[in-house]
Amino acid sequence: MVLQFPGLYGPRQPLPMRVLPLPGESTGSFVNRLAHANGLGLADFLQRVGQGTGSSSGDAARVAKYPQCTEMYVNGPGLEYLAVLAGEPAALLQRALPGLAPRRRLPGNGDAVWKWPWQPSEGHLVRCCTRCAELRGVRESAWWLASDSWRVCARHGRWCDDSRTEPLDGLSLKEVPEVVDAHRERARLQRQFGRSGEELFADAFQVAADWWRTMPMVLRWVHRAWACGLENRSTRAMPLVIYPEAAQLAQLMVEFEQSDLRDTKARSRWLGEAEALMGAWELDVQAGKGPLLDWLHRHRLPADPEAQPTGRSKRGRLPLAAGHRRLASTTGPLEQRSCLS
Predict the structure, then answer these.
(1) Radius of gyration, CA atoms only, the chain
(2) How far apart are alpha carbons 284 and 211 in whole angstroms?
(3) Helices and strands in the chain, H and E counts
(4) What is the β-pairing status of strands 113-115 and 51-53?
């Protein structure tokens, strides 16, 4: 492998032992595994990547001790150096490691530079499903860089999050299979409708999160938390326990967006269907009606047909109501991808 950037001190060949990056893995997690495989401490490894800082205090030892709390960033030459050491094309590393995305690249194309701040600039470090990692030959702890602070492994029925407490291999969803089913439903909406499906799920998730904050003692949510060994009113439990209701509500929102009817009668009918779901879930309809009305208000007008393709386009895209465009961001955690505050 030949470096694309000139320099006297850059690496010229891969390290003897290679490791493959896990899809979605943080750069820091991958670098730690690569260093460990070659018997190198983090500081020794980083000397081969370029120059930089380990944290705000420059304490590389602390970063090495707590890789689950930190993320590594590089500039263009730093990426090339890392690719040489890993023995992999830079493009492959970029596809696998979201921390190497162009928008997260450090500036400068002169000297190779890396930074290892104490917190990721964006996103959350979520422990990888250990079963997924083992299938790829990874036996040590690895970390995803994820938009949200949690992630579902439907293949192995595990809830993985950014908690640093036991169990280290995630929470088993064996006793709450409806959470896995909800995750698959979310994936189906995204496959079918692309970004529109994911944003409507974000809307539904925000509504369900508001319900949980208003009435956290709903029995189904308490039982799910207990089944996974969580304290039912903890913020860690919240996304897990509301996932099934959010997925069902998202489907109802999709059906509303697919309809051309937005008049008072159509909105009242949709609200009645949503309230019927709340009743079936033993939620207080009056206490939880507010966010539903807020969502209906934002979606009361159909999408502008001149600005977006039709809802039944050949690629299955679903144009969303004009009022939905007030998003905090099209990327990032779910709360930022929702039209609801």
Answers:
(1) 23
(2) 9
(3) 12, 8
(4) parallel
Q: Within a 13 Å sphere around the CA of 231, how many CA atoms are in the beta-carbon half?
A: 4
pTM for the model: 0.87
CA distance 310 to 336: 25
- In Å, the largest CA–CA distance within the chain is 73
Q: Model confidence over 16-62: pLDDT tens digits?
A: 999 999 999 999 999 989 999 999 887 778 777 766 554 444 456 66
* 118, containing H or E segment: none
Q: What per-residue confidence (pLDDT) applies to 46?
A: 77
Phi, psi for 27 (deg, rounded to 5): -60, -40
Count of CB atoms situated within 10 Å of the CB of 167: 12
User: Which amino acid appears at position 244 of this protein?
Assistant: P
Beta bridge partners of 233: none
331 — pLDDT class (breaks 50, 70, 90): confident
